[in-house]
Write a structure and sequence with these properties.
The N and C termini lie close together (5 Å). Strands 1, 2, 3, 4, 5, 6, 7, 8 and 13 form a 9-stranded mixed beta sheet that branches. The protein has 328 residues and is α+β, with helices and mostly antiparallel strands. It is 38% helix and 26% strand. It is globular, with a radius of gyration of 20 Å. The protein is built from 9 helices and 13 strands. The structure holds (R)-mevalonate. The site of (R)-mevalonate has 11 residues, from α5.
Length: 328
């Protein structure tokens, strides 16, 4: 028997950083997934292999430890194994049956696109099925959020919610209240990214310091991001393309003012606009990582232009969340 679970990554469309101060945000699940495939092993060990990273190891469930076998050129990426260990432990019941877990990724790791949540959600779905547990989506999301809390220390519900349910969400004050935004048709989005990685914790801290040092300048910026986000909900529901794009551009400028932009992110954002995107902005924490561009009728052109110097992919909205397939 082979079980494969898939779960999408995410991108923040509006409101990052301001959301830390109780402002709203809008985020979408993107049609780029993490795939977790499980097979039974003859012994009682749990082996994990992440194909794209050339990273593998054994999970010792009794000691709650990861034993990395081979460290690739990017040792910082081995942290992802802690999410997988914690996810397996959440749904391990009864006598241990050994398993081989293989992971394939369509989402770059550490680019602010929710790769760890997608892997966590898909692992919980696959392992619970393997252990003959029938979990609801609510239960999967709850376990996945707890995994993020355990591994990261702090986490919002954005990533795990989108990887579980798919779609687009609006997070109102303090990110506890999450509402779906239902739009008809697709959202023509493109993500651009570089190998440069921002450190979310440090970036959030740098904004906090700016807010403390220049409250009269920074508080209005956070209020402006809030207005942009609330206006964007109507623009998205009305499919007002021009307004969606303009609001993204304003949001990009406000993030720049908060100090989380970089030369690479600016280059990609402006390349996208020159190639016909109606709007483009940093997505996620910034300081490296990714941009998102809104490109009605211009998706291919924008991807091609960004790819001249950086990486890019079509980030169509994923209506689907986590899915499980069983092959006998
Ligand atoms: C990071 O993806 C989004 C931030 O707003 C931080 C957070 O909400 O935890 C920068």
């Amino acid at each position: 028997m082979e079980i494969t679970a898939s779960a999408p990554g995410k991108a923040i469309l509006f409101g990052e950083h301001a959301v830390v101060y109780g402002k709203p945000a809008i985020a979408v699940a993107v049609d780029r997934k993490a795939y977790v495939t499980l097979k039974k092993r003859e012994d009682k060990r749990v082996h994990v292999k992440i194909n794209d990273l050339n990273l593998s190891g054994f999970l010792d469930l009794e000691k709650s430890e990861v034993k990395v076998e081979n460290l690739n050129k990017k040792p910082e990426k081995k942290g992802i194994l802690n999410y997988i260990l914690s996810a397996v432990l959440k749904v391990q019941k009864g006598a241990l049956q050994g398993m081989d877990i293989e992971i394939d990724l369509e989402i770059p790791i550490g680019a602010g696109l929710g790769s760890s949540a997608a892997i966590t959600v898909a692992t919980i779905a696959a392992v619970s099925k393997f252990n003959r547990m029938e979990l609801s989506k609510d239960e999967i999301a709850e376990h996945a959020h707890n995994v993020e809390l355990e591994v990261q220390g702090a986490a919002s519900h954005i990533d795990t919610t989108l990887s579980t349910y798919g779609g687009m969400i609006y997070l109102s004050k303090n990110a506890e209240d999450i509402k779906p935004i239902k739009i008809s048709g697709n959202l023509p989005l493109v993500v651009g990214y570089t190998e440069e990685r921002g450190n979310t914790g440090e970036l959030v801290e740098s904004v906090k310091l700016k807010k403390e040092t220049y409250p009269e300048a920074v508080n209005p910026i956070l209020n402006a991001i809030e207005s942009v986000t609330d206006d964007a909900v109507d623009a998205l529901l009305e499919k007002d393309e021009k307004r969606i794009g303009e609001l993204m551009n304003i949001n990009h400028g406000l993030l720049d003012a908060l100090g989380v932009n970089t030369g690479d992110l600016s280059r990609m954002a402006y390349t996208a606009r020159r190639a016909g995107a109606l709007g483009s902005k940093i997505t996620g924490a910034g300081g490296g990582g990714s941009i998102i561009a809104y490109c009605p009728g211009k998706v291919e052109e924008v991807i091609k232009s960004i790819k001249k110097m950086d990486k890019a992919f079509n980030a169509a909205l994923s209506v689907d969340g986590v899915k499980v397939k069983v092959k006998k």
